[in-house]
Amino acid sequence: MASVSDHLGETRGHISLPEHRVQPIKQILRRIGYALLMLAATVAIVMLERDGYKDNYDGDMSWLDALYYSTVTLSTTGYGDIVPVSNAARLTNVVLITPLRIVFVALLVGTTFEVLTRRTRDLIRLNRWRSTLSGHTIVVGYGTKGYTAIQTLIAQGSEPEEFVVIDLKRELVAEANRDGYPAIHGDATRSAVLRKANVTNAARVIVAADRDDAAVLVSLTVRQLNPACVLVASIREAENEQLLLNAGVNAVITSAEAAGRLLGVAARSPAISEVFNDLLIHGEGLDLAEREVTAAEVGTLPRDCDQPVIAVLRGGKALPYAQAGKLAAGDRLVLVTSPA
Fold it and tell me: How, if at all, do strands 332-337 and 287-292 pair?
């Protein structure tokens, strides 16, 4: 049964940023190592000025006496049975041993201090992140579709810092953090959650929800908050495509229908299905690219271009190869390319 905190997190959204965490055991061992190094340095300093110290027990300063004095001094215990008596020894205590004592104590209580200041540091990081968040890409759903969409955009030149993931599942939010992406645990159908991702300044929103009804609701909310961003969505059933188009989605991918078409092609010609798979996987074999028509290409037909043209983008619409006619200024060509 979901707790109240889980429900509030889904409603309002909880932001988590990726960070490198050190194992607690490693932190403890590292602190112990630093403490031992400071203890050894203090022993060496005391022995260099051993003639300036007085041992009330036997008057001589041995290595054991120096270790004992360093231990009680750094730990601020100070029994007073060994004391600096010369000016040089006292100056050494003021200039060297006292700073070491301060660092030593700070090191020992560092874990507690780190816990107490962690919330403040997290808030500073969060505010800094949100202040620089603009022109980014929001990915709703970090399943296979969302993850693959991010990897495709990164392969085409996007930076990992440009992405923000929103998901209802905590395990997928944690996975996104491990992969290096900021993530929000929450319900993307709610405007409060989308605002935490700064949707009003987003350049693109990719809706890769598990359910079609969720995809429609997310798309409606996104378009209400940001009428200008590029909004694409994935659904399972083709009958819901018109709902998303009416919601203002720029492009709708029907996963079930597309998979069915690929299965049909593979059943008829497995070799042709491999070509489709090649096109779908960016950076391996064939790729799809988009570019503007050059001045020399204006007035020519798509078949006259140097590279294979499969569609022409004109006036915000994709025209099939056979319907494009002569190329005009402002057209964009969709090409089949191959990595160099």
Answer: antiparallel
3 state SS of 269: coil
* pTM above threshold 0.90: no
Say if CB 89 and CB 115 are below 8 A apart.
no
What pLDDT digit, counting tens, does each position of 232-244 carry?
999 888 888 898 9
**169-183, 192-206, 288-302, 313-327 — which is least confidently predicted?**
313-327
The DSSP element (H or E) to which 14 belongs, if any, is strand 14-16
Environment class of 156 (CB within 10 Å of its CB; exposed 0-12, middle 13-18, buried 19+): exposed
Question: What is the SS3 assignment for 214-248?
Answer: HHHHHHHHHHHHCCCCEEEEEECCHHHHHHHHHCC
User: CB under 8 Å to 256, separation ≥6 — which residues?
Assistant: 236, 237, 238
Two tokens, residue 6: 């889980």
**Owning domain of residue 42:** 24-110
**Domain for residue 281, yes or no?**
no
* Residues 148, 241 share a domain: yes
Q: Number of helices (H) and strands (E) in the chain: give both, helices first.
A: 13, 13
Amino acid at 184: I
Cα-based torsion angle of the residue sequence 183, 187, 188, 189 in order, rounded to the nearest 10 degrees:
180
Do 233 and 175 share a domain, yes or no? yes
| Total count of domains within the chain | 3
108 to each of 33, 69, 186, how far by Cα in Å?
Answer: 11, 18, 38
Say yes or no: 237 and 165 in one domain: yes
